[in-house]
Amino acid sequence: MKIIIKNIFIILAVAGFSSCKKYLDINTNPNSPTQPPINGLVTKVTQNAALNVFRVANITSYYTQYLASPNPSSPTDVYEPIDASGTWSLLYDNMTDIYDLQKIAAEQGATQYVGVAKILMAMDLHLLHNLWGAVPYSAAFSAESLAPTFDDAQTIYQKCLGLLDEGIVELQKSGSTRAIPVASGTGVKVDLIHNGESVAWIRTANALKARLLNQLSKTPQYNPASIFNALSSAYTSVAHDAFITAFNIRNPWNQVAVNNAALVLDGWLSEHYVKSMDGSLYGAVDPRLPLTASLTRFNDYRGTRNGKGRVGSGTNKDESYISLTGFYSGTNSPLFIITYEEMKFIEAEVAFRTNDKARAYAAYLTGIRENMNKMGVAPAARDAYVNAPTVSVGAAALTLELIFREKYKALFLMPVTWDDARRFDYKYQGFLLPLNAVKPTFVRRLVYPSVETSRNGANVPAVSDVTQKLWWDMP
Predict the structure, then answer these.
(1) Which domains does the chain have, with CATH numbers?
(2) Which of 80, 145, 193, 424 is the most buried (most CB within 10 A)?
């Protein structure tokens, strides 16, 4: 199941990490380079930044009930502590490469590369922050200690914001000694996310800032004006989205679907997700369901209850899975990092919280439409859904639950929806605790992985259990 896929990623990451680190051990030779090629590093870290979104989502999607395990009482489903050592290691592997990229670029005066590196570092560091809170950062890349201290979670959060601001400053500088090559047409890209376009990276940095600032909705630090300011410099269309389409073999969600078809069971859709899309929960059939889910042998869509596991052998298509040809899970489907529709739902939420219902409602509807347009939903089907009375409720009747519900649908398989679930206290209509849950309330964080506790246990913060809230999840 997932363990097999995770091991494949670990093997690939270790191979890449070893080759990347060999340059540190090369004897000085005037005819041999002692640094990795800077453009090769850009390609590697931009690809892995997107792959890390998948790796994190392949955990969080069980907590948001996009996915459910085919096995009864699976640890992830029922909130037992899981060991996410592979994900932790892969995030730090990429951050180490990003650190090297930033250092080499700074030495060369390549400010565009420095700016991209800082934004990528913020991406991966924020993923760590959202899973664990306090993590090593300030001492993480020093060769002087194999047991780095942990920075507290609020420091990590502020560092993420700082890196984004610093990245924008670097990208706005003139006089960079070199520029990231820009591929034309079907040419091979060096920068797999934005093809060396500084303006695109600045938009993405602001989009990430809006996401981070909106994360504080439960706290006294929540600042709507700052969020609106970030949104004003972020995406204005789906053409600005951050994503990759270059993979070693295929989109990783497609690999999940391929493995499931080969009976390495994975990618089973949750009952909650299917019911949220098929009209059972909300009254309107969502035309995006066929673009994400496979049909059962009964020619319909059926999810698996989290914690319950399969109803039969798991080989008869009694339930729905991530589709082999789905919009997000086709062989060459884009793997998204952050999107325009997320910006519209952030705008809707912030406007709602500031009592600007008209702006909130317009942004809410735009988020739905833009996601459907991107996915290729037929205009008639799109309009039928948007015009349904349970969707087009009018500005006066708009609620946070509606905004969070539609954001959940539009950001399928994105890890940021677990941040949303925690901020919203899992108050989605029909969202149930998993069967056989070992905790009486919903999961809030991960415990620290064994790869860190085994070698750096003295510095690892104490965690009571997975229901312990992170700092931004508390008023």
Answers:
(1) 38-65+77-245+442-455 (1.25.40.390), 252-322 (no CATH)
(2) 193
